[in-house]
Specification:
single chain, alpha/beta, Alpha-Beta Plaits, TIM Barrel, 3 domains, 22 strands, globular
């Protein structure tokens, strides 16, 4: 950095080139300075907008989960202790319904400022969405974290929100869970804290509940219920494949390109989304059986209609983290594809960044083995952080799915628009094609075309439908 005559600080990039005589003798150098202050400030602003909640200025869910993951990484050290608080406002809906959403937004901003007064610089306070907040309290015992929770409770109790001539009193239910070596993942930590928050509400609201072994037992019981339900689903043929089309934005062609999705039929014939049962399936390794079932059934379905198979461009299939790390699954999948008669270049496997980096060596080996047969790969839930780019360089994938949280707001948020454009440009520079998720209206479609995104997927393109009902 340099300071100008006006006293302002300027960020610069420099390049130096030697100056030599004809005989090679060094006689000087040329120094070129380039003012990059504005571009650096823009990058900083974009980074802040990507990691912070636009309404309250607090850390957003994405950044919070990244910081929680780092805290979990330190939790295995004996000298490190931390806690997670999950906070859900009580009676917030009354304000929203009575005074409108703008009043509700103002209420959230005021409470965020009040809660921030109880947070040390080393801690992380976030708005997870709606009226839910979370707090990572670093280097503290459970007793210390309870003290912080009680301060937040008291702050909320005495707070009054004025809307016109009316005063509203709110409460907050808080779930607290220690973060230690027994906490296996970000998902588990949030689940424990959320369950404790639920128990606080069950006990009368406006109080703190600490996650205990009893809560662990309840969680395991819920998991086992799902494991039992999935076992019955395999026996009774209650798992069903859906498809969702993916459209090429250059020509609008959606024929022969879709993603395979999984649903579980409930007792009334309705479809249960995988978010309800996959977490339990992953914790108890049922996911390995599910992944094998999905791939087998998809290949069987494709073989049933040679005409459809001939016109198929690409069929995407999701793979779990457990299957990516399972060498026996790698070998089984390769043999199954070889024996199926389905051309391997018709198949694309979708993997998440978290799943890929859990065991990068095995993931790359799996990709290389199936790519040699012609299969393609897509990196799902791709963000625009430095971490994502660093892994993107290592993973030999063909497609990048730009995270839907950016896509959904890009037509109304200049920051999200620039994020999508940046992710698209960097992906193209690395030789990857891009797919936009969660495309919900025509305005987003037009913006994606303008940016140059290759493919789009979402309800505006086509809703998920049962695979057996597929009509070209």
């Amino acid at each position: 950095a340099l300071r100008g005559r006006d006293g302002q600080r300027y960020l610069v990039e420099n390049a130096v080139a030697p100056v030599r005589q004809a005989d090679g003798t060094l006689i000087g150098a040329v120094l070129v300075l380039h003012d990059v202050t504005e571009s650096k400030q823009l990058l900083h602003r974009l980074g802040f907008e990507a990691s912070h909640d636009a309404l309250t200025g607090l850390v957003n869910r994405r950044e919070f989960e990244a910081r929680l993951a780092r805290t979990l990484g330190r939790a295995c050290r004996p000298e490190h202790s931390a806690a997670l608080l999950y906070m859900d406002l009580d009676q917030f809906k009354v304000v929203n319904d009575t005074c409108g959403h703008s009043a509700g937004d103002e209420l959230l901003k005021q409470l965020a400022r009040l809660y921030a007064q109880h947070v040390r610089e080393r801690d992380t306070l976030a708005r997870l969405g709606g009226d839910e907040f979370a707090l990572i309290v670093e280097h503290c015992s459970v007793a210390d974290a309870l003290g912080v929770a009680e301060k937040i409770l008291e702050t909320t109790r005495v707070f009054r929100y004025a809307c016109g001539q009316r005063l509203f009193q709110l409460g907050v239910s808080i779930g607290l869970t220690p973060i230690d070596g027994s906490t296996a993942s970000v998902e588990e930590a949030l689940r424990r804290a959320d369950h404790a928050c639920y128990m606080a509400k069950e006990r009368g609201r406006n109080r703190v509940s600490v996650h205990t072994g009893d809560a662990d037992f309840a969680l395991r019981r819920s998991d086992m219920d799902w494991v039992t339900r999935l076992s019955e689903a395999f026996d009774n043929d209650e798992l069903e494949l859906y498809y969702q089309p993916i459209v090429a934005l250059a020509d609008g062609d959606a024929a022969g390109h879709y993603e395979i999705l999984l649903r579980l039929k409930d007792g009334g014939g309705k479809a249960i989304l995988p978010g309800a049962f996959l977490p339990a399936a992953e914790r108890y390794d049922v996911i390995l059986k599910i992944d094998r079932w999905v791939l087998s059934k998809t290949l069987d379905w494709l073989k049933r209609d040679p005409a459809h198979l001939a016109g198929l461009k690409m069929c995407s299939i999701n793979l779990s983290r457990r299957s990516l790390a399972d060498v026996s699954f790698h070998q089984w999948a390769a043999k199954l594809i070889d024996a199926s008669g389905v051309p391997a270049d018709k198949l694309c496997f979708e993997i998440t960044e978290n799943g890929a980096i859990a065991d990068m060596q095995k993931t790359i080996a799996f990709i290389d083995a199936l790519a040699a047969r012609g299969c393609r790969f897509s990196l799902d839930d791709f963000g625009t952080g430095v971490t994502s780019f660093s892994y993107l360089k290592q993973l030999p994938v063909d497609f990048i799915k730009i995270d839907g949280s950016f896509i959904q707001m890009m037509s109304s948020s200049s920051v999200d628009f620039e994020m999508v454009r940046f992710a698209n440009d960097i992906s193209h520079m690395m030789g990857r094609q891009t797919i936009a998720e969660y495309v919900t209206d025509a305005a987003i479609m037009e913006d994606l075309k303008r940016i140059g995104v290759d493919f789009a997927q979402g309800f505006w393109v086509g809703k998920p439908r049962p695979l057996d009902a597929r009509i070209d």
